[in-house]
């Protein structure tokens, strides 16, 4: 019996490793979309919007699209399977790039905003890659599977900002339109990649059911996992959305702002190669709390000066904090459901996280316009302190419940 269980686990992890490679490549392509929108969304918004306080609305709509798309994406993949769902998602991403390009070309702020909203819906599919990697992985391999897929974002950290630099003037007379056209092309390139995914067929999935969702979301473990994820991601978005506009406002160039975002996204994904091992060694809660603390340090650095180095160092620390906080929180979520509850719990988590991220990015732009970069950073500390205390309390509870060796 034991040998059969070991072989089943080995077979699952062999398939999981293959899927991780496919999903990491898809993450590299699909994950390049948000850095393009974040680098240029506020700048293009400022160029197109008559009310400059709405400059970061395109970035906020990217995150709103993420929130809006999570539940429909989960339902679609529950009905059709992961691979068909991801193929549809990639096509949505291509359409998003075309709409945003048209909005810039026409000088139509509303059309451009529609393009970033649709890009967010594509992002809902991309964000679920991390859960797809965990679907067939053993419990021991699951944190590393999630981490390795997120490592694919390392390539996107280079691809997205570099495309901004290389293609922003590709279409004569229409600044930045070429960058969003390239964004759509990357989504098309993801189609043959996700076609290689070998996810369980729909008929092989556990039947939907289990506990009512309301019962699951009221458990302390789920609440702490979701709050950790939304604070890690929400505060990262809160600072990151405002940073390019703040840099340009302080006299730094658009190229310096784009490179700052590139270093930020690199630091978001580079640690993923070992984050899973850190979780295995120190625990999900400890890694999550470390990530939250790093976000607080990033805000402290941002408050210490307005030079290029201050912005870049703060953005790097912000990315590191997001990596530990968000991957740790994602691993915590996977402990909250049974196989038959997987789809609805994953969708609920992402809806709550990305809904909060949308609010954070929109309020960031309004706050930057009204009160400045300093106020944006001071507001980071209170939620970080509260959530670190909750996570450490959860860690103590977990240790007390674990049977002695």
Automatic annotation (TrEMBL):
The chain crosses the membrane at residues 20-49, 55-77, 84-100, 106-125, 145-167, 173-195, 222-249, 261-280, 287-306, 370-392. The keyword Iron-sulfur does not apply. Keywords: Membrane, Transmembrane, Transmembrane helix. It holds the Pfam family MFS_1. Residues 221-405 form the Major facilitator superfamily (MFS) profile domain. It is found in: Membrane. Gene3D superfamilies: MFS general substrate transporter like domains (1.20.1250.20). This is MFS transporter.
């Amino acid at each position: 019996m034991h040998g059969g269980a070991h072989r089943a686990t080995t077979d699952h992890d062999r398939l999981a490793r293959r899927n991780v490679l496919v999903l990491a490549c898809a993450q590299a392509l699909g994950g390049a979309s948000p850095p393009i929108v974040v680098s240029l969304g506020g700048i293009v918004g400022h160029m197109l919007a008559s009310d400059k306080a709405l400059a970061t609305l395109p970035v906020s709509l990217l995150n709103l699209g993420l929130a809006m798309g999570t539940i429909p994406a989960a339902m679609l993949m529950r009905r059709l399977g992961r691979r068909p769902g991801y193929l549809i998602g990639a096509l949505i991403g291509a359409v998003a790039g075309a709409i945003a390009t048209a909005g810039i070309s026409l000088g139509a702020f509303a059309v451009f905003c529609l393009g970033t909203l649709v890009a967010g819906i594509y992002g809902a599919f991309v964000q679920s890659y991390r859960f797809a990697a965990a679907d067939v992985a053993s419990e021991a391999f699951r944190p590393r599977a999630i981490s390795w897929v997120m490592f694919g974002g390392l390539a996107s950290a280079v691809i997205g900002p570099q495309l901004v630099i290389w293609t922003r003037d590709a279409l004569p007379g229409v600044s930045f339109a070429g960058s969003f056209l390239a964004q759509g092309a990357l989504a098309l390139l993801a189609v043959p990649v996700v076609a290689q995914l070998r996810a369980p067929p729909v008929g092989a999935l556990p039947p939907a059911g289990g506990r009512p969702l309301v019962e699951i979301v009221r458990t302390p473990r789920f609440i702490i996992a979701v709050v950790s994820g939304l604070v890690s991601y929400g505060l990262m978005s809160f600072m990151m959305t405002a940073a390019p506009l703040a840099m340009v406002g302080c006299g730094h160039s658009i190229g310096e702002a784009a490179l700052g975002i590139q270093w930020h996204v690199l630091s978001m994904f580079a640690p993923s190669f070992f984050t899973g091992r850190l979780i295995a060694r120190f625990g999900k809660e400890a890694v999550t709390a470390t990530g939250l603390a790093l976000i607080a340090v990033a805000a402290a650095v941002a408050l210490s000066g307005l030079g290029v180095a201050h912005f870049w160092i703060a953005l790097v620390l912000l990315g590191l904090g997001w990596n530990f906080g968000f991957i740790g929180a994602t691993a915590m979520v996977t402990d909250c459901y049974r196989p038959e509850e997987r789809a609805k719990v994953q969708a609920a988590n992402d809806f709550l996280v990305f809904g909060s991220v949308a609010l954070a990015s929109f309020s960031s732009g309004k706050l930057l316009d009204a009160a400045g970069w300093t106020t944006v950073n001071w507001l980071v500390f209170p939620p970080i302190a509260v959530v670190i205390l909750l996570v450490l309390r959860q860690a103590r509870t977990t240790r007390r419940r674990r049977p002695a060796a």
